[in-house]
Design brief:
single chain, 388 residues, alpha+beta, 14-stranded mixed beta sheet, three-stranded antiparallel beta sheet, 9 helices, 17 strands, 27% strand, globular, binds tetradec-13-ynoic acid - COA thioester, binds magnesium ion
Length: 388
């Protein structure tokens, strides 16, 4: 059934019941000298292109490929619209490899027609911290679909990851492949219900009027928790301590150090935003919340071209109840003109979703590890990893 995935070192559906298979790597590393030296062949009209994302023209081409051909919802009403600044942030973390930014272009026109990327990360599974690649932004132009290009892209990124002596990877997808470690659901909290209803993102509830709906989702103008403020560079050490202590509770989570926290969590306008609670008495940083900005293009609507969405990222509460902290996150998102705040049911998010008026979305997000078995999988609440 999965002609490509059946050949790969991933949990196979037929092995699901086999209790004798050990947790951990599925295949051992091979000597680097045995890693294939040449790129995999492409159909004759195409060529590989290692992308330089510091090149504004190339970044604009990648932005445009994704804006027109990347992930859509099941009803084809919305398509992710990752901004150029976001792509640079997502693809150039500390110690990134340029060779892992892999394009395919038409030899003649030089048009970019496909892409896949990896970035390095340390991810802990139980007590095993593993160097991995996070694979993202796999995209084939709509006109080139179903021609088995995706397996070539996946094999090529795998080869280039192996060349760095890295043998595991993490990725998410909306489709079921062999075999998810867990399956999560997105929840959505309306901030601008009128627009969301107009574009068909949500519907007026039964026995609800528009004015009652607007009132239902109304939020205060400013955060309520004393000491709630935006994260700054001087907070990196304190945030790293909070986050490391918190992520240690989950079965699968990133192993962030201060360099990672500075990159992934320090606010960047319209890319990532982070807030914390600094105790007015002790000046101790006790709580932290963050979200990233990922607009969606609204396809076929006369009034609106984009939805501005915030996605819950990493949140840590030690003093401020998580629900109160996330209510403040909603308030600052609303104040910054986001239309909707999205969150997965990972980590402790279940504890605030219903209370803060998030509603469950359709569509699921499956999490995968490559060449690493986690027997029986984990629950979303045991997952401490958010991929972009
Ligand atoms: C997918 N999303 O099953 P079988 S997520 C992985 N992730 O293989 P073709 C996928 N595999 O089943 P198309 C996949 N989608 O026969 C399809 N596949 O074994 C598999 N969409 O290839 C599929 N982006 O080229 C099948 O399909 C084979 O032309 C079919 O291309 C697929 O970024 C795609 O949703 C997704 O642009 C490129 O539909 C295309 O349809 C498209 O005939 C819209 O491919 C955008 C979209 C996917 C977003 C993402 C994570 C990707 C992870 C890839 C796997 C990484 C493995 C680890 C590598 C490093 C290892 C080390 C160390
Ligand atoms: Mg194809």
């Amino acid at each position: 059934r999965h002609k490509f995935w059946e050949t790969q070192p991933v949990g196979q559906f037929r092995d699901a019941a086999d209790a004798s298979l050990p947790n951990g790597p599925i295949e051992p590393p091979t000597p680097l000298s045995e890693v294939r030296a040449d790129p995999y062949p492409l159909p004759a009209a195409f060529e590989w292109l290692t992308c330089d994302l510091d090149d504004d023209a190339l970044l604009a081409d990648l932005y445009s490929l994704l804006a027109h051909n990347y992930v859509e919802d099941d009803e084809n009403m919305f398509r992710f619209n990752y901004s150029p600044a976001f792509l640079r942030w997502a693809l150039k973390p500390p110690s990134f490899f340029r060779a892992w930014h892999i394009g395919v272009r038409a030899k003649e026109s030089k048009k970019l027609v496909a892409f896949i990327s990896g970035v390095p990360a340390r991810i802990r599974a139980r007590d095993d911290v593993v160097r991995m690649a996070e694979i993202n932004f796999l995209c084939v132009h709509k006109k080139l679909r179903s021609k088995r290009l995706a397996p070539v892209l996946i094999r090529e990124v795998t080869r280039r990851v192996h060349q760095e002596n890295i043998w595991q990877a993490a990725y998410t997808a909306g489709i079921v492949l062999p075999t998810p470690i867990t399956t999560c659901r997105y929840w959505h909290r309306s901030l601008n219900p009128k627009k969301l209803i107009d574009v068909g993102f949500s519907r007026l509830g039964p026995r609800m009027t528009m004015s009652r709906t607007v009132r239902l989702y109304k939020l205060p103008d400013a955060p309520l928790t004393p000491g709630f403020r935006r994260m700054e560079l001087r907070d990196v050490a304190a945030v790293t301590r909070l986050l490391r202590a918190y992520l240690a509770r989950f079965v699968v989570a990133p192993d962030f150090d201060e360099v990672d926290v500075e990159h992934w969590l320090l606010p960047q306008e319209d890319v990532v935003d982070s807030y914390l609670v600094e105790s007015p008495e002790t000046h101790e940083v006790t709580d932290f919340c963050s979200f990233y900005t990922l607009p969606s293009s609204v396809l076929n609507n006369a009034n609106y071209a984009t939805l501005k969405a915030a996605y819950s990222y990493y949140n840590v509460s030690t003093k401020t109840p998580l629900q109160q902290l996330m209510n403040d996150a909603l308030i600052v998102a609303k104040r910054n003109n986001y239309d909707v705040f999205n969150a997965l049911d990972v980590m402790e998010n279940e504890s605030f979703l219903k209370e803060l008026k998030f509603g469950p979305g359709d569509g699921q997000l499956h999490y995968y590890l490559y060449n690493y078995r986690i027997r029986n999988g984990i629950k979303p609440s045991e997952l401490g990893l958010v991929l972009l």
